[in-house]
Specification:
Length: 266
C-alpha cells in the first residue's frame, strides 16, 4: 500500500470546473492532497498548468487538464468526455465555474444576462447531463456538488443575472436529487458567503473596506477557500451518504440576517 492509498479520497476521480483560481483551485489542491485524481477545468489550458504542477500525486493514475468554456455546449460535452475517457470513470462532479456582471437592472442587456446564466446555470446542467448519462449507462453511483452562493437565498441588487442563476441552482439540485436518488446518485450544493478569493481582493486587501464588510457577517470575517473545500469534501464523502437535494450554506452566518443581531423591530 502506498502512502497515498490510505487517504480519504484515494482512488476517487473528481472533476472540478473553474479550477484556475479561487475556490476551484483550492478544491483541486485539497482533493489531490487527500489522494484523489482530479480533472481541472478552466477556459484555457495554460491557466491550469501552474496548478497541475502544484497538485499532490494521486494514489493512482494521473491528474488531467480538461480545458473548455462551460458556457459553450460543444466545449462542455468535450470536457466531460475527456474527463470520463481519461479517467475511465468519474466519482464526483464539482460544478464550480461561475461569474457575475454588475449592472443596474433597468440597463441589463440580453447578452450580459445570458452570459451569466450560460455559465452558472446552463453549463451546470450540461455537465450534470453528461455525468448522469455516464452513471446511468454504466449503472454506477455518482455524486454532484454545485457551487451556489448565499445569493441563492439573499437578493443581490445590481446583479440580477447572478441572483437568478444561483436561485436556479437551488432547484436544479433539488430536482436532480429527486430524479436520481433511487440510483444512488446524490446531488447537493455548497453556498459560500464572502470568501477570500481574487474576486474579493478589492475589500479583503483594504483594511477599511474589510472592516466595513466584515461587520455585516455575524462571524465578523470572510471565509477561507479551505472552509468551502471542507464542505465540498463532506458532501463528496461517505460521511454524507444519506444527504441529497440540500444546499449547505457556508457563510459565517450571513444568511441569518445580521441586521437582526440587535433587536430593533419590537
Ligand atoms: P473566481 O472568479 O476566482 O474563479 C472562477 C473560476 O471559474 C475561474 O477558474 C475561472 O477561470 C472559471 N470560469 C469562469 N467562467 C468560466 C467558463 N465560462 N468556463 C470555464 N471556467 C470558467 O471565483 P470564485 O470566487 O473562486 O468562485 C467560484 C464559485 O464560487 C462561483 O460559482 C461563485 O459564484 C461561487 N461563489 C464565490 C463566492 C466568493 O466570495 N468568492 C461567494 C459565493 C459563491
Amino acid at each position: 500500500m502506498t502512502e497515498n492509498s490510505s487517504k480519504r479520497f484515494a482512488n476517487k476521480k473528481i472533476l472540478i470546473t473553474g479550477a484556475s483560481q479561487g475556490i476551484g483551485e483550492d478544491a483541486a489542491l485539497y482533493f489531490a492532497r487527500e489522494g484523489a485524481q482530479v480533472a481541472i477545468n478552466a477556459r484555457k489550458a495554460e491557466k491550469l498548468e501552474p496548478l497541475l504542477k502544484k497538485l499532490a500525486k494521486p494514489a493512482a493514475g494521473e491528474h488531467l487538464i480538461v480545458a473548455g468554456d462551460m458556457s459553450v455546449e460543444e466545449d462542455v460535452d468535450r470536457v466531460m468526455k475527456e474527463a470520463l475517457d481519461g479517467f475511465g470513470g468519474l466519482d464526483v462532479l464539482i460544478c464550480n465555474a461561475g461569474m457575475q456582471i454588475e449592472c443596474p437592472s433597468e440597463d441589463i442587456t440580453f447578452k450580459d444576462f445570458n452570459a451569466v446564466m450560460a455559465v452558472n446555470v446552463t453549463g451546470v446542467v450540461l455537465c450534470a447531463r453528461a455525468a448522469l448519462k455516464y452513471w446511468r449507462e454504466n449503472e454506477r453511483e455518482g455524486n454532484i456538488i454545485i457551487n451556489s452562493s448565499v445569493h441563492q437565498q439573499v437578493p443581490k441588487p445590481h446583479y440580477l443575472g447572478y441572483s437568478a442563476s444561483k436561485g436556479a441552482v437551488g432547484n436544479i439540485v433539488r430536482t436532480l436529487a429527486l430524479e436520481y436518488a433511487r440510483y444512488g446518485i446524490r446531488v447537493n450544493a455548497v453556498a459560500p458567503g464572502a470568501i477570500v478569493t481574487p474576486i474579493n481582493d478589492a475589500w479583503t486587501k483594504d483594511p477599511e473596506k474589510y472592516d466595513a464588510t466584515a461587520k455585516h457577517i455575524p462571524m465578523r470575517r470572510p471565509g477561507e477557500c479551505r472552509e468551502i473545500s471542507d464542505a465540498m469534501a463532506f458532501l463528496a464523502s461517505k460521511e454524507s451518504s444519506y444527504i441529497t437535494g440540500q444546499t449547505l450554506f457556508v457563510d459565517g452566518g450571513l444568511t441569518l440576517y445580521a441586521d437582526f443581531e440587535q433587536n430593533w423591530s419590537s
